[in-house]
Amino acid sequence: MAALFTGKVLMANREQDEVETERELGRALENKVLLLYFGSEQCPRCRQFSPLLKDFFLRLTDEFYVERASQLVLVYVSRDETEEQQSAFLRTMPKRWLAVPFGDAFKRELELRFAVSEVPAVVVLKPNGEVIVGNAVEEIRRMGPACFRNWQEAAELVDRNFLLAEDVDDWTRRSITDPIRRLKYKLGKKMETKNKERKEEDEASS
């Protein structure tokens, strides 16, 4: 998927940092379904749909709803008239969203490539860049988060359920020794409890 963004720049939502295509973006997009959301805060239909998309995304990725974040990433491609409008809109959306910088010519390239003529539009892509759904707006409205299962199967994603949601956030895995440390801790606690019980029994019998 990173090939689609070779030489391009994406912005992390609500931060000034650019997402480095070659390394960070590659990891961000690897083995994930990608949503390209074409929209505008000035568009009445977008104003109706955007809250639905926000809820859809959060229910699949936020720890409040799921123990493990789904393998999903979203890039906002705006038709906002000003950078301030784009920024104001993104501040109301999930922090995990990425965005094409305002005024970037890449926006037009994406519109042409995926034949986006009107907004809102949500293009669903496999990790290799192949289109799963040309415009999933109605599917998301109708099915909600349930439609992700179909996209996941179509994308043939490798199941990464062993990754916790917070690991997806910072792209780092827990130390491989962490489960061992926790197991030792539990065993240690059990031994303490047993020793305490034995000591109490000895005291009671004497």
From TrEMBL:
Residues 1-142 form the Thioredoxin domain. It holds the Pfam family Thioredoxin_8. It comes from the Eukaryota. One of its GO terms (cellular component) is mitochondrion. GO terms for biological process: photoreceptor cell maintenance. InterPro entries: RdCVF, Thioredoxin-like_fold, Thioredoxin-like_sf, Thioredoxin_domain. PANTHER family: NUCLEOREDOXIN-LIKE PROTEIN 1. This is NXNL1 protein. The lineage of its organism: Eukaryota, Metazoa, Chordata, Craniata, Vertebrata.
